[in-house]
Amino acid sequence: MERRSICILIWYNYHDERLCCHLGHDLANPWYINELHLGLRLLLAMLLGGLIGLEREQSNHAAGLRTNILVCIGSCLLMLLSIYGFSSFVNETNVRVDPARLAAAVITGVGFLGAGTILFTGKSITGLTTAASLWVVSAIGLAVGAGFYFAAVTTTVLVLLILWAFNKLEKRYISTKREHKLVVQADEQSTIVLTLNALLAEKQIVIRKVMLEESAKQEQGLRQFMLHLTVQLPKNESLLALLEQIKHMEGVHCVSSD
Prior knowledge:
By secondary structure, the protein is an alpha+beta fold. It has eight helices and six strands, in the order H-H-H-H-E-E-H-H-E-H-E-E-H-E.
């Protein structure tokens, strides 16, 4: 009876080892991944990056669907390469493997990519959120490549919540005023400055900056000037309606906004 049990145990261990070798050349080896799991990780990175990119695309931002997918897949691939690409050298003498080295290079590279989405105009800066989302997308790709699926999926859900839901809350409760630049071309002898100041005060529009500039144009012997205004509009005030009112003021020839 004991001899039979020993034979069964030896047979089980032998076939268990063969199964492990068939699935992954020893499943206990952390430096090996088969083609199926490699492809699944790349597909998951494409899906998660695409979800964030779709939100950016719908919001009409510079880095949209394709950019986010490429960043996420590229980060995932480099992490896979960093962990599994040099596995054949692990058992070599005097060889040390550092899987985090390529990951650090990814973060640095995405920093330069994100800098390209930031625009500085006057005192306003745009594109910071898009740059930050690209950085997070690269981190999600690295997490997928390293096998941290739960962390990658959870981060994607949180990023979508921040970009979509928080944007709605910010527009409704925080961003109560909008800043615009107005350029008014009028006759030099007109009372446009006083009239415009009264109109803006009536609508509770805050004037942030004013600049008067002489114009080389003349009409009917009257010299013209350019009035540059930076104003803050309340949330319920329409910019088009304001431009229409300024346009019909006496002495105004042209009005425009950024």
